[in-house]
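I would like you to sit down with the pair of lines that follows and say whether tokens and residues agree.
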Amino acid sequence: MATNSKAKTATKAASGNASLWWVVGVVVSVIVLGMSCWMWMGGRTMAMCKTENLKLTAGQQSGAAGTIYQHMVLTNTGKHKCRISGFPTAFLYGSNGYALGNSAAARTQPSPVTVDLANGESANTVLGYPQAGNFDPGVCSDKSVSLMLYPPSATTALSVPLQVAWCPGFSESSIQPGS
């Protein structure tokens, strides 16, 4: 009987080990399958657009209710796709090299989106410049000579020549696709 009891114990142990190996095999399979799907779906993280891979140009301009609206276009000049999202930081600069007034204030509409840019593709922000003639003398600055724009999450600015006065209400939209 002792032999029969030892055989039953050995069979239970072998059965337990087989169950354990089966669970380990399932877990490993799920991990491998999940990683394969992640890679197949483009799971590699796309880099944020860097200032050195972007070109800034002044785009179309329109006016309404005492404000001039101008698209500022950011074009990917890099070799790789990159991602841009959020609000840039824009300043008007005078001929003395100093910022005129505060940076552009963020407008809530349109809502921020994430834009993926391949080489040559563009995104934009729309800047709003209130017209100086609608303010009392001395409220607005002299005309700027340039606009400095820091892309979202960047510490280096892009520059474009621009001659407008800084007035209260200088504003910007979030980054949007297209020019």
